[in-house]
Amino acid sequence: MKTLMCLYAGLLTLVVGAGTALAQPEFNQVERGRYLAVVGDCSACHTADPAKPFAGGFRIDTPFGALLGANITPDVVTGLGTWTFGDFQRAMSEGIGHRGKRLYGAMPFTAYTKMTQQDDRDLWAYLQTLQPIANNVHTNQLPFPFNIRTSLLVWNWLNFNKGEFKPDPVQSALWNRGAYLVEGPGHCGTCHTPKNTLGGDKNSQFLRGNNLGVWWAPDITNNNHTGIGQWTNDDLVNYLRTGVNRFSIASGPMAEEIENSSRHWHDADLKAVAVYLKSVNSLQPSPLALGASDSRMVAGKAIYSDNCSACHNDSGTGEPGTFPRLAGNPLIRATNPTSLAHMVLTGGGRTGSTDSRPTAPAMPSFARDLNDQQVADVLTYIRNSWGNAAQPVKAAEVARLRKNLQP
């Protein structure tokens, strides 16, 4: 999905501070800004052509239509060349761009508003060093009436709370740094927080999982059933650094985020994020597992034995570091099975490639081998076996996804 250009290894290790600006004097401003661009994964939305980094054009599909990432190189005609830092600061903190143009929420200013002005200055300094690239991008591809930007006055009133991150004096410096990264420049909630009918965050369900169309961004709260409650801090750090831990292997958009962003984060920042995420609690009732005699379970078990057990084993334990564990995997028990069905139908592409795992495994597609009911049955079996428990998958859900995945 994302076309990313991150070649930012080799930065110095951060000293964890109270959780806000990267203000250590041993860092020069451009290098601090470069690191922030990695943390924010800016190139994910602002690079469509790897030969034109940050020149925009990447397509962002929303429930309301398509938007294209803007050109953020310092080109004076098609980029930010005529912007001032004041323009940039206003865009980041208020969602208002050059000459008062209001920005859509696909640009996550609702999270970036929490960034310190110093971090914004550092990021701006880095952007000024980019090669100016002429690439005229018409960012607004939305149909009427969503293409009318004045409607954003109402959207902002309902969904946007302006304000810089304020450290919690009760919490540790490590926790505050993690909170700042997750809620601010890392904008984790943009993918992982459920959205309301207008596309704004349901803040009361922060990080509990969200539908991304053909993928599901999972629950990353400390919930034991659907979230990361059974993961240790080290499990989280390993996952964000390498894409693998003893529970899961990253795939889809998260694999790309790890490959091009979080694996380049400083160790201190990864540890801070782990500390913070483990403190985000959500109490949700766990469903009861289907009985083994249920017809869907019987059919699914046979399909699993024929097609899945060779890699994932009869007991769902997988192979550490190669084939993901299905037993006790919170993604398997997610409230939404979209990512699981996606993986079965398409294989989901390869997992991310990192320094520790330069050769990443890939899952084959079963779209030709299994019909919609068979995919639903095998997923229902997996989601209710080996201690897992989740709602059964319906053939109609698989059919809709299959249609959406077709070119």
TrEMBL record:
Task: Recite the UniProt keywords alphabetically.
Answer: Cell membrane, Electron transport, Heme, Iron, Membrane, Metal-binding, Repeat, Signal, Transport
Signal sequence residues: 1-23
Q: Which annotated residues bind heme c 2?
A: C188, C191, H192
Q: How is the cofactor bound?
A: Binds 3 heme c groups covalently per subunit.
Required co-factor(s) are: heme c
Indicate where this protein resides in the cell: Cell membrane
Under the heading Pfam families, the entry gives: Cytochrom_C (PF00034)
Record-linked Gene3D superfamilies: Cytochrome c-like domain (1.10.760.10)
**Gene Ontology CC annotation, any one:** plasma membrane
Per UniProt, heme c 3 binds at: C308, C311, H312
Residues recorded as binding heme c 1, renumbered to this chain, are C42, C45, H46
Name the SUPFAM superfamilies on file.
Cytochrome c (SSF46626)
**Under what name is this protein listed?**
Mono/diheme cytochrome c family protein
Q: Which organism is it from?
A: Sodalis ligni
